[in-house]
Design a protein that fits this description.
It is an enzyme of class 1 (oxidoreductase). The protein is α/β, with parallel strands linked by helices. The protein is built from 19 helices and twelve strands.
C-alpha cells in the first residue's frame, strides 16, 4: 500500500480527534486509528468528513500508510495501555521511526520507555499536551521531550499546531528522556495551586465579605485586566455569572468535593523525593483530599465550634484589594517552587532545560496561561542561571509590594476561621526562605539526642559530630543516611 500520511494518531477520544483536526487544518495528512475501529469509521463520516484525514482498521494498516520515518502519536490512557500499544506497534516499525506519547504519563515511565526503545533503534518522545479540548483543536501548549533525534522530524508539525504568542509557538524541545512529561506534571501541579488559590479568594469574598456571585464575577473580571490576567481568572468570572435553566447560579448547586487525576499528587511526591519544598502544590492536593471528606465535614460542622463570626467587619472593598494582592503574591510563590523543582530534577537527570522557553510554552494554549508567564520568561532571559524567581528584581518588588496585604489576609482568615491553606503556606514559605536562621538547629540537636544522628557546627560545616547529651548514651554515632 502506498505511503500517504504524514503522521498517525491512536486514540479517538475528544483530545485525539481535536488534535487530528488541528493537524489537518495545518496541511498535514493524518491517519486515525482507535482500538475500537467503529470509532474510526464514525469519525471519518462525521467530524472528519470532507478533510484529508484517512483511517486504518489495524496497527499494520496504519503503519503501512505512513511516510518514513514513521511518526505515530498516542493519546491513550496512561500506564499499561501505552505499553500495550508500543508492543503492538513495534513489529511494524523500522530503525529511526518515532513514537510520541501525548498522554499524561508518569515521567519515570517515559524515561524507561525512552531508554528501552532507544536500544531498539526507535525514537521515543513523551510530550505534555495542555489546553483541554479547545486547546487541542485550535492551539495547545506542547512540551515534547525524549530522544532529541526525533525533534527535527516532528518540530514542524508540533510548532504549527501549537498556540502562538505573537509569532512564537508555545512549543519547543524540552530535553531528554522523561523531561517533557516532568514539565507537564509540574504544569499540572501549578494548575492545582492556581485553582486552590482562586478558590480561597472566592471563599473569602463570599463568606467574609458577603458578596454574591454576580458581584464576585465582576471582581474577577477586573482582576483579569491587571497582573492576574489569566485563563483561570477569566473562566472563574464566567462560571460565577452562569445561570441554569431556572435562572439560578449553577456553581452554588455543585457539590463541594473536588476530584483529581493524580498529576498534582505526582508533583508533590517528586518534591518529597528530591527534597524541594513545593509546599503550595502539596497543600492544594491535600485541600482537594479534605474537600472529598464531605460527609465527615457535615458531621464536624455541627459539632466543632469556630470563631463567633466569619464576617469581616472592616472596609470590604479595601479587603478585596488585599485579597487580590495575597493571590498575586501566593501565585508567585507557587511558580517559584515549581521552577525550583524543575531545576533540581534537571540536576538529578542531567536534563538541559530552558526555563525561559518553558515559561513561553506555558504562556499560551495551556490551562495556566497568563500574562504573568511573560515576566518569568524575561527573568530567565535576563539571568539563565537564576536560582529562584524570588531573587529576580521584578518578582522581588512584586512580593514586597504585596506583603502587607498578604499578611493581613492570612491573619484575618485565621481570626474568622476561614481556611486558606495555600495563602498561608505560601507566606510561611516566603518567611522561611528569607530567614537566615531557622529552628532546625534544635531539630538536629533532638535527632542527635535520641538517635545519635550527629550535627554540624556553624563554625565548621561539613564535619558531623555527636554529643553524649545525658552522659549515659555513649559516644557511638549513627551512620548518615537519607530517606
Amino acid at each position: 500500500m502506498s505511503e500517504q500520511a504524514d503522521i498517525a494518531l491512536i486514540g479517538l477520544a475528544v483530545m485525539g480527534q481535536n488534535i487530528i483536526l488541528n493537524m489537518n487544518d495545518h496541511g498535514y495528512v493524518v491517519c486515525a486509528y482507535n482500538r475500537t475501529t467503529d470509532k474510526v469509521d464514525h469519525f471519518l463520516a462525521n467530524e472528519a468528513k470532507g478533510t484529508k484525514i484517512i483511517g486504518a482498521h489495524s496497527i499494520e494498516e496504519m503503519c503501512s500508510k505512513l511516510k518514513k520515518p514513521r511518526r505515530i502519536m498516542l493519546l491513550v490512557k496512561a500506564g499499561k495501555p501505552v505499553d500495550d500499544f508500543i508492543e503492538q506497534i513495534l513489529p511494524h516499525l523500522e530503525k529511526g521511526d518515532i513514537i510520541i506519547d501525548g498522554g499524561n504519563s508518569e515521567y519515570q515511565d517515559t524515561d524507561r520507555r525512552s531508554k528501552s526503545l532507544q536500544q531498539k533503534g526507535i525514537l521515543y518522545v513523551g510530550s505534555g499536551v495542555s489546553g483541554g479540548e479547545e486547546g487541542a483543536r485550535y492551539g495547545p501548549s506542547l512540551m515534547p521531550g525524549g530522544n532529541p533525534e526525533a525533534w527535527p522530524h516532528i518540530k514542524a508539525i508540533f510548532q504549527s499546531i501549537a498556540a502562538k504568542v505573537g509569532t512564537d509557538p508555545c512549543c519547543d524541545w524540552v530535553g531528554e528522556s522523561g523531561s517533557g512529561h516532568f514539565v507537564k506534571m509540574v504544569h499540572n501541579g501549578i494548575e492545582y495551586g492556581d485553582m486552590q488559590l482562586i478558590g480561597e479568594a472566592y471563599h473569602l469574598m463570599k463568606d467574609a465579605c458577603g458578596l454574591n456571585n454576580d458581584e464576585m464575577s465582576e471582581v474577577f473580571t477586573e482582576w483579569n485586566k491587571g497582573e492576574l490576567d489569566s485563563f483561570l481568572i477569566e473562566i472563574t468570572s464566567n462560571i460565577l455569572k452562569y445561570k441554569d435553566a431556572e435562572g439560578n447560579s449553577l456553581v452554588e448547586k455543585i457539590r463541594d468535593s473536588a476530584g483529581q487525576k493524580g498529576t498534582g499528587k505526582w508533583t508533590a511526591i517528586a518534591a518529597l523525593d528530591y527534597g524541594i519544598p513545593v509546599t503550595l502544590i502539596g497543600e492544594s492536593v491535600f485541600a482537594r483530599c479534605l474537600s472529598s471528606l464531605k460527609e465527615e465535614r457535615i458531621v464536624a460542622s455541627e459539632q466543632l465550634p469556630g470563631p463567633p463570626t466569619n464576617k469581616y467587619q472592616g472596609d470590604k472593598k479595601e479587603f478585596i484589594g488585599h485579597i487580590m494582592k495575597a493571590l498575586y503574591a501566593s501565585k508567585i510563590i507557587s511558580y517559584a517552587q515549581g521552577f525550583m523543582l524543575l531545576r533540581e530534577a534537571a540536576k538529578i537527570y542531567g536534563w538541559n532545560l530552558n526555563y525561559g522557553g518553558i515559561a513561553l510554552m506555558w504562556r499560551g494554549g495551556c490551562i495556566i496561561r497568563s500574562q504573568f508567564l511573560g515576566n518569568i520568561k524575561q527573568a530567565f532571559d535576563k539571568n539563565p542561571k537564576l536560582t529562584n524567581l524570588l531573587l529576580d528584581d521584578f518578582f522581588k518588588k512584586a512580593v514586597t509590594d504585596c506583603q502587607a496585604s498578604w499578611r493581613k489576609v492570612v491573619a484575618t482568615s485565621v481570626e474568622l476561621g476561614i481556611p486558606t491553606p495555600c495563602f498561608s503556606t505560601a507566606l510561611a514559605f516566603y518567611d522561611g526562605f528569607r530567614s537566615e536562621r531557622l529552628p532546625a538547629n534544635l531539630i538536629q540537636a533532638q535527632r542527635d539526642y535520641f538517635g545519635a544522628h550527629t550535627y554540624e557546627l556553624l563554625e565548621n560545616p561539613g564535619k558531623f559530630i555527636h554529643t553524649n547529651w545525658t552522659g549515659t548514651g555513649g559516644n557511638v554515632s549513627s551512620t548518615t543516611y537519607e530517606v
